[in-house]
Amino acid sequence: MGEFRIPLSTSSSSAVRVAVSCARGLVFSIVFLMTLEVATRVEHTIKYGAPLLSRYTYDAVLYSVDEYGIRGRPNATFEKWQLNSFGFRGPEFSLDKSPRKLRIACIGASETFGLHEQAGNEWPRQLERVLREQSIEAEVINAALAGMSLPQRLIHFQNRLLRFRPDAVILMLEYTSYAGLTPAKVEKRLQAQTVPLPSRDKVLDGLKSLRVLTTFRYSLIPKLPDFLQQLVSDFDLYWKLQLRQRELGSDFRSFRRVSQFEIDAFRQDLEDFAHTASENGVSLVLVSPALWLNERNLRLSYISWPYIDETWIREARAIFPQVAQQIARENDLPFIDLSPVVANRESRLMKDMAHFSDVGAEAVGRVIGHEVDTSLRQLLQSRHDMSRRREP
Amino acid sequence: MVYAIYRILGRWPKPQNRLLLIASYIFYGYWDWRFLFLIAASTAIDYWLGMLIVHNPLNKKRILVTSVTFNLGLLFVFKYFNFFVENFAVMMRGIGIEASLPVLDIILPLGISFFTFQKMTYVIELYKGNLEAQYDFLDFALFVCFFPLLLSGPIERATSLLPQISKPRVITSDQNREGIWLITWGLFQKVYIADNIAPMVNTLFAPNWSGTGAEALIGIYAYAIQIYCDFSGYTDIARGVAKLLGFDIRINFDLPYFATNPSDFWRRWHISLSSWLRDYVYIALGGSREGEWRTSRNLFITMVLVGLWHGAAWTFILWGAYQGGLLIIYRMVSRSALRERHLHELGLFGKSLAIIGMFHLTCLGWLLFRAQSVGQVADFVHLMATQFSPDPAALRSLGALLGYASILVVVQMIQYTRHTASILEQASLPVRGVVYGVLFYLMVLHGGVSDSFIYFQF
Fold first, then answer.
1. Contacts for A96 with CB less than 8 Å, ≥ 6 apart
2. DSSP code per residue over B247-312
3. Minimal CA separation from A75 to chain B, in Å
4. B438 and A33 in contact by Cβ < 8 A?
5. Is B360 a catalytic residue?
6. Which of A9, A339, B176, B453 is 20 to 30 A from B1 in CA distance terms?
7. pTM score, whole prediction
8. What does the alpha-carbon distance between residue B24 and residue B254 come to, in Å, rounded to a whole number?
């Protein structure tokens, strides 16, 4: 008996061939991508202790939450970010202070924690180097965590940092300090303006749970030629903005003016900071950030802060540093403004609206180091005098 | 873009060839446009000499000698002139004469050793009557500068490549699949294995290196893996690209570290060069037809030329002499106890022993090949003989080396046991997806950083 075959016309058989090819291509692509995802997850589990099967982001690996809010996970590592046994980015240090060294804690958000800088190049590390060059022995603790709002930093300072008995605290008042819409703040704002909370976009959320995309974004894109990197980045920005816009509708960029509520909250938090520092004998230094405002950076900011409009940002840039400066004056605190440092050199010193490049972090470390030089020397002198008085 | 246009021109080989020729010249000129004149002029001269052979069969020997002299002269000027001048000056100084000889301030054109040897096969094979003349000059120019082979070979013979250029090419899905696999596997060997091992090797051969004999040995193992993956990786990429264009290029490496003896090694390592020298030098010198002494002499000369082909340095000449010495010794002893037949009788154990032994002899050769000077070779050998203590640094290096080379070992074991290079030929679609996924992942996320391929300098 001959083999049974379905008679096919030439056109239908070629259509079947195309369909089979497509199906094979699809199966191959799915298996290929699944392999990449599994390989990434296995590697992350081995290297960083990330959960193998559940969703995780880099902050879920690096951070945990305790009664005082988010904190760095002790000894956590993810990509270039490595935390010490206290959960701070940077080298190990002991709880006991060296009598010959000043201990300086830097508090801030991602700009201080270091987002784009290579490990060891974030500005607190650069500051430590600058102080060493100036013959000031100081141990600089990078106590910042990405995304920390001002109230969270205050709690962090009061409940976690004081036990390390810092001699000085440098508080970087980045954009996150005044644009940080923490749930509590948003709730309050909601009561005033009845704006819905931003829901996490399902598509974005789903894509974020694919580890391979994030990993390749960090590893593959920097290896591409500049024009391709730009193309990928533009595309990424475009579709994320589209998603945000679709999700929020008319609420997208609806915060056009800085409200008195925000100014008052900011002032109150800073005054509490100054008060806590003075009560505990800690020298507080306020640093006002640099913002690089251009069309692209503004568009980028709308992804993370979708309610905030350009008009709000421009107004905030004028108001909040003034408030900070006023509080510094009232409390006799050093105040450093970084805007002149980056002026006309933004493309070299900054990576986006608020984050520094390696070179930028070095410039910031240098400026802060020079500005605090006198006060740190006085601190060292007073400590030296005190220890001499104690001697029999 | 070239590939897309090439496929569109699928039914017309001549336009395809013109496209490939333009692409090849752009590819070569991208490095240094001035050398385009060199490659074009030398192509024209060999084309013209080829035509002369066809039209003056009575003078063909004289034309052949002219062609060979021209090509070797070209190599001599660009590659060896300064070496000979400098050594001549040293020699004269040795006998008390201070000679101030001119040196040429020129850079070595990329791939000159490869395309010159490839070009030479045309006139030689025409002379031998094994090939019909190529009348289309542009097709002949494509044979000389076909971009996948231009920089690091394989050195393809005119008898094999020219007919493929002249005829229409059919690209099947099997060819595409094999081409993609060759490119992926070649890239993996280069980017993941060779480039990750390179820093280890560079540290070892740096002038101020200090360490133990165990570290030195592991460093030499590392170089053996690096040079293999670097060169074999390039060859695979070249063959893969050629395959996607419908060309079938000969293999250049056949599991060389599975060789059981020196003769076997040279049947597996850089096959296109070793067979070129076998056919056009060793056999021309008389091969093994004229007694034991002459055979040994011919082997030695051929292998010294292999060394010299790689570059103008005493370490390369020494390496060639060492390989020649190994082949001669092997010829002598293979008449008695270590015959391959006897090894087969010893079974797997004997064969494994022979493979391990041959690998170490090869590694010793690589030490000569990679060392900065003859003094460095002596230092390494002394260190390995007197201070061989497997310290933690050596064990760490060994761990890293095994880690990087593990996939290579697995793949080659499969190739060796199955007697096939295409390990994915029988594999199901999901298995292929997993293999490509793992290779892609390791290449992109854990690939090393390197400027170029080692063999570009030759």
1. none
2. -----S-S-GGG-SSHHHHHHHSSHHHHHHHIIIIITTTTTTSSHHHHHHHHHHHHHHHHHHHH-S
3. 23
4. no
5. no
6. B453
7. 0.78
8. 28
